[in-house]
Amino acid sequence: MKISTNSRTDLIVHISLVVALVVALFLGFFFLYLPFTTNHGQSITVPDLKGMSLEQIEDYLDDRNLRYEIADCTFVVGEKPLSVIRQSPKSGMRVKEGRKIYVYITSMNAPNVKMPQLVDRTKRSAEAELARLGLRLGTIKYVPDLAQNSVMEQFFNGQKILPGTLIPQGSKIDLEVGDGIGNTEFDVPDVVGKTLDEAEFVLRGSNLKRGLIMPVDDPSKAPGTIVRQNPEAGAGNKIRVGDVVDLWVVGQPDTQPQQQNE
Asked: What SS3 string covers the chain?
């Protein structure tokens, strides 16, 4: 179709139509085509994934047109296995649909650590060492001893545990701690006539330590029988918690003194 341009008015109209068409194409390209093809201007608020399990976040992010990728897996004391402890981008940020969220999760199994030597440390020092190794403080039992707030024994699952023993990180360690009142005096227990095993049981129950064992010959007594002790029982003799009791025993038993809290 031929457009008439015989008059000045026709020319202006034609130019206006061309300009309008160019503007329409320009606006359509930037405000319709580009947003449609690139999701320009459409964004999603990143949700808070902390504490969620992997099973939960998979469906949760899929419903929000987001993806995830595990960035790292590490053990954290007190956290549920395979749960999110950190994420990138952080929650609250705006991202495009389909954006990948990097998550940091807790591992399924705890690594092993070596049990430290806590005996003879202060309670505060022991607590700090447990925290450093990723171990947890369990129950604290105070026992009569002059060394106030000093660790006397260390336990794992109700049993004494030696330094260097491998245990899972996050395990609870129970402690026996001195109460500082070991100077209380009480009557010396009488173990004469008892067997060595019986005497040691009585001494431990009184929070006393077995000292030296002196072997003696006495055919009238069975081997292992206590025939004398020092300090002696009776006559108003007193003893303090943690003190040592030497024993004279029929036969040839071990002559080494008993270790503290053995």
From this structure: CCCCCCCHHHHHHHHHHHHHHHHHHHHHHHHHHHHHHHCCCCCEECCCCCCCEHHHHHHHHHCCCCEEEEEEEECCCCCCCCEEEEEECCCCCEECCCCEEEEEEECCCCCEEECCCCCCCEHHHHHHHHHHCCCEEEEEEEECCCCCCEEEEEEECCEECCCCCEEECCCEEEEEEECCCCCCEEECCCCCCCEHHHHHHHHHHCCCEEEEEEEECCCCCCCCEEEEEECCCCCCCEEECCCEEEEEEECCCCCCCCCCCC
